Amino acid sequence: MNRLISLLVPFALLAGVSAAAQASGMSNQLLLSSAWCSFSYNKISGTTKTTRARFYSNGTYSFGNQRESQSSGQYGSVYGQSGGGGGGRWQVQGGELYMGEGGGELEPVQTVLKRNSNGYPIIVADGVEYMQCS
């Protein structure tokens, strides 16, 4: 299952969370509070990747991603761009997030909640960090 979307938690509800990383702690209210985004850059390949996920109160989610790369060499420059997306179903049980692509079976998602140096929530899912975004 593509777990690029498997994370999210709003700052207002994190008042009792310590600065140390915390496993799970997911709730419907947290996931619904905002869209969640990740960003990565590979300086060797010049590739950037962004992902934006949104959870909906009807138990569905959607995500989109975009990849851009640029390379210059002896014979000129090349620019490439690609994108995609998808979605599925989600639910929270006992503070744990479960997701399923399309109409697939719901599977547990391993998430860890952290806060950055300014106190904003960061969710790590499969090694990818997500932050609140618009």
Please, could you describe this protein's structure?
With 134 residues, the chain is mainly beta. The chain has a single domain (11-133), classed as Lipocalin. It is 4% helix and 57% strand. It contains 1 helix and 10 strands. It has one helix at residues 28-32; strands at 22-23, 35-42, 47-55, 60-73, 76-93, 96-101, 107-109, 111-115, 121-125, 128-133. It has a 10-stranded antiparallel β-sheet with strand order 1-8-9-10-2-3-4-5-6-7. The two termini are 25 Å apart. 20% of the residues are buried.
Summarize the structure.
With 134 residues, the protein is mainly beta. It has one domain (11-133): Lipocalin.
CATH architecture: Beta Barrel
Q: Tell me the radius of gyration.
A: 16 Å
Shape: elongated
CATH class descriptor: Mainly Beta
Strand order of the largest sheet: 1-8-9-10-2-3-4-5-6-7
CATH topology: Lipocalin
How many individual helices? 1
SSE topology sketch:
Elements (H helix, E strand, L loop, with lengths): L21 E2 L4 H5 L2 E8 L4 E9 L4 E14 L2 E18 L2 E6 L5 E3 L1 E5 L5 E5 L2 E6 L1
Antiparallel strand pairs: 1-8, 2-3, 2-10, 3-4, 4-5, 5-6, 6-7, 8-9, 9-10
Question: Tags for this entry?
Answer:
10 strands, 134 residues, Lipocalin, mainly beta, 10-stranded antiparallel sheet
